[in-house]
Amino acid sequence: MDKIEPARRRFFTRTIAAVGALALAGCQRLSASDWFPQILGAGEKASAAALGLVSGRKAMAQEFTAADLSPSFRSNGTAEPDSDKYRALMAGNFADYRLEVGGLVERPLALSLIELVAMPNRTQITRHDCVEGWSAIAKWKGAKLASVLEAARPKPQARFVVFHCADPMADNGTDFYYESIDLDDAFHPQTILAYEMNDAPLPVKNGAPLRLRVERQLGYKHAKYVMRVELVESFAEIAGGKGGYWEDQGYQWFAGI
Amino acid sequence: MPPAETAPETLYYRHRLPVRVMHWVNVVALTILFMSGLNIFDAHSALYWGKSSYTGKPPVLAIGATMTPESGIHGVTRVFGHEFDTTGVLGASKERDGELSPRAFPWWLTIPDGRWLSMARSWHFFFAWLFVLNGLAYLAWSIGSRHLARDLAPDGNDLRTIPQSIRDHVRFRHPKGEAAKRYNVLQKLAYLAVIFVLLPLVILMGLAMSPTADAIWPGWVDLFGGRQSARTIHFVAAWLIVGFVLVHVFEVIVSGLWNHLRSMITGRYRVPPEVGHG
Question: Where are the domains of chain A?
């Protein structure tokens, strides 16, 4: 019969423990290397391509009913931007707020909240999925990003829309939050610049006066405190070059999974 | 009846090359998926039932830590409203350097070993693709080569011997001779349940967490109770797979570790000779 004598068993368990420890240390070292995360990045590209194929760029995110609304909508990340400029706007109830739309456009814009509210809008009850794992459901109303962009008339070279935000992420007041999406997402009917949440003006903790809703992507894409919309051909020259604050920290640019 | 000593031992070619390769690819992929998954879980170490996390109902499972100046860090696990002190394992455990710190699962169970959500996601999605492609290749090969029909599908005779097979397993009596060349009925049923229920379920519930996959057919996630329910099912299914692996490895050890290991590496299995009954 297959009796394992003690010496052999000891050898075996020690081998397993040693191999396990080596493998774990290896995973740690690979994670910290420059080249290995780039190989792992193939998974992100494959997911984006496969989901693009099966779901289509025009697929609509699920919408919910009032019965599904979360009793409170969690604030994550910045709860109040630590900047004098933002505090001054907040003190004036955002009357002096202007959304700048620029970059690769024929007609740069500076839109007040009143002008934004007068633009074609959409109301939707959608689920917000944080990369951390939690979800919350809220009702959003906002100007269609497509309408804002059409008013500014993007140039043919424009490929991405970058959202520059009011919240500094570094303690010294620099490193402002930013995000970027492609034109398919920008012109998607559910992509809005929201100024209302649950039938009330957007609270400061959730991104007042204006936040992006780009359904079908994770929460960090939904930039809060949007101050400037910039159309670009490439985001390689902006901040860390990865297309967003969290992307620069190693998170995936494609946040659909 | 010849005496047992003289019964010829035969090396039987039990596992063909594709099965062996795909088995070990699966071992690597599932191990990394499980461990990187636990690291991802740690970014929000609570599970819910429903469409969102904030439904007014408490989480079904929450792993956290409490910190007081008097008693230091304590790991606390709450399951269906019952609270357990799980210091050292869940909620708070020692880091590699020996310092007790708040984290859902211990460092030696997670990839990477520190809390690092973006890196854990990169590992998870890369090996998810390896796992899915390996699984599709296995399905195609198993159907095409008739591995599925010949070796895995139980026949009527198999099903009639379920009670006997249970008795054999409980008594650690392992098949010999001709019977040792085939999978036994409990083995077949366990493999089929894992291949056709558990693994597809864990993949589907992983996809259910993707907001883009949810948009393929808006509302499909609600068939499983909503996105947060899907996350809970994903977690439970992952642990059920671990449960299967533990039983699988246990059976391998008690029925001939070296013999089984060799057969999964070289394909050759030493068939235990048939000895006198009784």
Answer: 61-248
